[in-house]
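Anyone else keep sequences and structure tokens together like this?

Example one:
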Amino acid sequence: MSFLSSFDISASGMTAQRLRLDIASQNIANIETTRTENGTPYRRKQVVLEERTRSPFQVTLDQAMNQVDTPAGVIVKQITEDQSDLKSVYNPTHPDADEQGYVQMPNVDLIQETIDGMAASRAYEANITAFNAMKLMAQKALEIGK
């Protein structure tokens, strides 16, 4: 693994965490959405992350050079919809209320989304810290040649 690939690993982490924060924000924005384009209440979205592997060529090259096989970062595998039950709220005056006066509300929990957003923000900051540490190491290495 080359030194510069460390920057790519941190950048992939920052990209993934930014998307997690975007999805948490989208969930919060739709906390009261009772009708989506397909006519159903909004369902909470979740981000599934996966380890990003290196290309077969890179693995073969590293093996030929007797280098250790290391992970290459993270990717977003998919964005899924939470299939947990929707919340039923009694509100007979709502346009989407059923015959009994209940409205199906999104399965979004404000506290859970806030926690997810905070976790994504902290992970993003950790990746920035690692990125800046690697940048400082590179600058110090260049100063050796002066």
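And example two:
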Amino acid sequence: MKESKKLILEMLKDGRIDEDEALALLDAIEDSTEKAFDSFEDELSAILKSLSKTSKELSVKVKLYLENVDYEDLKEKFASGIEAVIKGIKDIRMNF
């Protein structure tokens, strides 16, 4: 954008455009920048809304999953796994 402004000022200085044309061009540059920024804000807002919705949905799914976990079964499987590891270590020690 800075280069565009310099070019417009150079054209004004060289007499290729008058002050009104220069002002119109500068306004057009500002308008396009504002529109681009507005568009960016709109896109960012849409992304944040989507992210918020997705995180809420994920939160509900995680809550439902955790409510349905059988912690006693999980505890038994974990204990069984630990016992298997300990037995494996003992077997290795016996072979040395």
